[in-house]
Amino acid sequence: MSTAPPEDQRRLLEVQALDTRLQQLTHKRASLPSIARIAELDAQISDLSTSLVASRTAVSDLKRELTKAEGDVEQVRNRAARDQTRLDSGQVGAKDAQALVGELESLARRQEVLEEIELGVMERLEAHEDALAKLDAANDELVAAKTAVEAERDAQLAEVDAEVASVTAARAKAVEGIDAGLVTLYDRLRNQLGGLGAAVLNGRRCEGCRLELNPSDVAAIKAKGPEQVARCEECSRILVRLDA
């Protein structure tokens, strides 16, 4: 591409400004603070999930242990009640009565031990249930916070997307009628050079790479006709001469 109408070259600057804004919006969309906050909350929820699983497992295990302890105590109580009923009936011999008394004493001692075990399990279960309740509350708080931040993110994304749509439409309108070959060259350079395909020549300085050109290069550019497309010798971007 060596020539294009001077007005088309100048119009590239408007297209470039819109493309730059689209690039900024793309970056803004990907780097919203709410996105980072959601990732942070997800990590906290994930970490807490491990503790929740361990705590729920402990509570479940202790409930089973308590059920067994209660069953053991109940079994001893029932056995003692049956022995006491037989002893109170007066229908057993002296030898059997003596055996029942001995068994009742043994059962009483056994019941005392089992009730201590039961009490210990109950105390541990209560402590774990308290810890689980706190973990559940913390998890609920994190989930609620994430939900709120997600709503904030969605609102911000909708705002950015609305501007992207507006700028995209403006860009399509701005590029209408510009020499097709010039647009093709501009788009290729923009894709190769980080989003900036055209820049103003300000005195000796290219506003694309911000470098000053050699006097001979500037002279060669100024010697070109207005329709000739100038390129920066340093960065290869299209140089738009506002005074051409």
TrEMBL record:
It comes from Oerskovia douganii. Residues 205-239 form the C4-type zinc ribbon domain. Residues 125-155 form a coiled coil. PANTHER family: PHOSPHOLIPASE C-BETA-2-RELATED, SCAVENGER RECEPTOR CLASS A MEMBER 3. Residues 15-194 form the CT398-like coiled coil hairpin domain. This is C4-type zinc ribbon domain-containing protein. Keywords: Coiled coil. It holds the Pfam family Zn_ribbon_9. The lineage of its organism: Bacteria, Bacillati, Actinomycetota, Actinomycetes, Micrococcales.
